[in-house]
């Protein structure tokens, strides 16, 4: 008998990663799909899960695409790479450029690089009269005061290039505005750009898109106003036919306008009292906050696997084969779980997952964004007729 020839496993290279949420799930999913995941990172301290799963991880300068390409060639061999991806919004452009350079399936990195700017999003949307939202760039105190006198309060102030609601804050009056703008203009360490835009109250939703198709719509819950902290998500969102059709029509126009017609896109929007839609932001990536996971629990469609298949040149299949209700509620610093309600939730669930990070829970620093979440409760039930009662339990789960 001849010797058995062992086929070398191909690599999926991740250029940096989410440090929480789906970052670790992506690495595991790549392994499940028969690839060897490789994480390239610049700062090991950012990744608490490095030692918890068996995959290759290398420290290198991920800010330099030429360095990344050379490192991959020297360490892994370019021909051994099946795909390149990033789950970090800050490195999607670099990963797509690298994939293109290696003649692997890639996203439109030029379009991605542009749309990452919240200012660019507003500029293009307004120019095309799509979800028109008044805004101004923070350059000096006087111009911002004039702007708010025209549009009224509240307004939203936010950086143009950050993720996870970092720095996003609602401003309710002129005193708060002057304080916030003064702080930004005097901060010599922050060289980023900031905008102020009109705030529109309404129910918030997240639309998950892949290859120009709407895969699902999630109802999002935010709290701690004027800070913007996502505290939970419900899937699927309960919407009437008119709202559903308007969302589909709007996001179809958005992805076409910004040339984001391939791969994943995550669009957050609000439905106002008059039924109109306001786009909050457009993200050329999967949603965070475990939204892909609750969508998978609800429908069976696996967006994370779809990304792995896309970047490795496999056929993407997002067929839905189940119809469950799934949700997540985040544990935020200062809150505790009601154990009686947790027991009630367990009785209602088919899937119930509790994650609690003691290290984050003990951190006294309050950031006012996703970093204040120290854990979550993820839930799934096939009993759609019990949805209202389940949501009532979920919304009262912490105190």
Give the topology, please.
Blueprint: E1 11-15, H1 22-32, E2 36-41, E3 56-59, H2 65-75, E4 81-85, H3 92-101, H4 109-115, H5 118-127, E5 135-137, H6 141-151, E6 155-159, E7 169-171, H7 174-186, E8 194-198, E9 203-210, E10 213-223, E11 229-235, H8 241-257, E12 264-271, E13 277-283, H9 291-299, H10 303-311, E14 325-332, H11 339-348, E15 351-356, H12 358-361, E16 373-381, H13 387-395
Structural features, described:
The chain is of the alpha+beta class and 399 residues long. It folds into 3 domains: 11-106, NAD(P)-binding Rossmann-like Domain (Rossmann fold, 3-Layer(aba) Sandwich); 134-198, Dna Ligase, domain 1 (2-Layer Sandwich), CATH 3.30.1490; 202-396, D-amino Acid Aminotransferase, Chain A, domain 1. The chain is built from 13 helices and 16 strands. The chain has helices at residues 22-32, 65-75, 92-101, 109-115, 118-127, 141-151, 174-186, 241-257, 291-299, 303-311, 339-348, 358-361, 387-395; strands at 11-15, 36-41, 56-59, 81-85, 135-137, 155-159, 169-171, 194-198, 203-210, 213-223, 229-235, 264-271, 277-283, 325-332, 351-356, 373-381. The chain has an 8-stranded antiparallel β-sheet, sandwiched between helices. β1, α1 and β2 form a beta-alpha-beta unit. α3 runs antiparallel to α4. The longest helix has 17 residues, at 241-257. It is globular and about 65 Å long. Residues 1-6 have low confidence and may be disordered. Pfam families: ATP-grasp_4. Keywords: ATP-binding, Ligase, Lyase, Nucleotide-binding. This is Argininosuccinate lyase. Its EC number is 4.3.2.1. Residues 122-312 form the ATP-grasp domain.
């Amino acid at each position: 008998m001849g010797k058995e020839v062992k086929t070398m496993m191909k690599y999926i290279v991740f250029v940096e990663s989410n440090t929480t949420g789906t970052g670790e799930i992506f690495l595991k999913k790549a392994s499940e799909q028969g690839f060897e995941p490789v994480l390239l990172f610049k700062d090991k301290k950012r990744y608490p899960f490095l030692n918890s799963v068996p995959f290759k991880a290398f420290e290198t300068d991920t800010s330099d695409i030429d360095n990344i390409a050379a490192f991959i060639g020297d360490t892994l061999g370019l021909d051994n790479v099946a795909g390149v991806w990033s789950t970090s919004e800050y490195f999607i452009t670099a990963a797509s450029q690298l994939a293109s350079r290696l003649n692997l399936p890639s996203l439109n990195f030029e379009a991605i690089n542009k749309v990452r700017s919240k200012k660019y999003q507003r500029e293009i949307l307004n120019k095309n009269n799509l979800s028109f939202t008044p805004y101004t760039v923070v350059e000096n105190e006087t111009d911002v005061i004039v702007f708010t006198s025209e549009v009224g309060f509240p307004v939203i102030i936010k950086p143009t290039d950050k993720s996870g609601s970092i720095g996003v804050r609602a401003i309710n009056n002129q005193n708060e505005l002057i304080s916030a703008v003064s702080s930004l203009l005097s901060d010599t360490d922050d060289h980023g750009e900031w905008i102020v835009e009109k705030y529109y109250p309404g129910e918030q939703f997240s639309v998950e898109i892949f290859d120009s198709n709407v895969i699902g719509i999630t109802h999002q819950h935010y709290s701690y106003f004027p800070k913007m902290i996502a505290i939970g998500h419900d899937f699927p969102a309960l919407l009437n036919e008119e709202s559903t059709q308007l969302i589909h029509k709007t996001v179809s126009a958005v992805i076409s306008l910004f040339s984001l017609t391939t791969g994943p896109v995550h669009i957050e929007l609000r439905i106002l009292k008059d039924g109109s839609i306001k786009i909050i932001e457009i993200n050329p990536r999967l949603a965070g906050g475990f939204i892909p996971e609750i969508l998978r629990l609800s429908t069976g469609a696996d967006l994370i696997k779809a990304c792995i298949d896309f970047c490795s040149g496999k056929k993407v299949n997002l067929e839905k084969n189940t119809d469950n209700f799934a949700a997540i509620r985040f544990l935020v610093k200062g809150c505790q779980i009601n154990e009686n309600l947790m027991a009630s939730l367990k009785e209602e669930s088919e899937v119930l997952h509790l994650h609690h990070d003691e290290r984050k829970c003990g951190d006294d620093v309050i950031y006012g964004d996703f970093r204040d979440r120290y854990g979550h409760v993820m839930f799934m039930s096939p009993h759609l007729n019990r949805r209202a009662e389940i949501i009532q339990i979920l919304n009262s789960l912490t105190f």
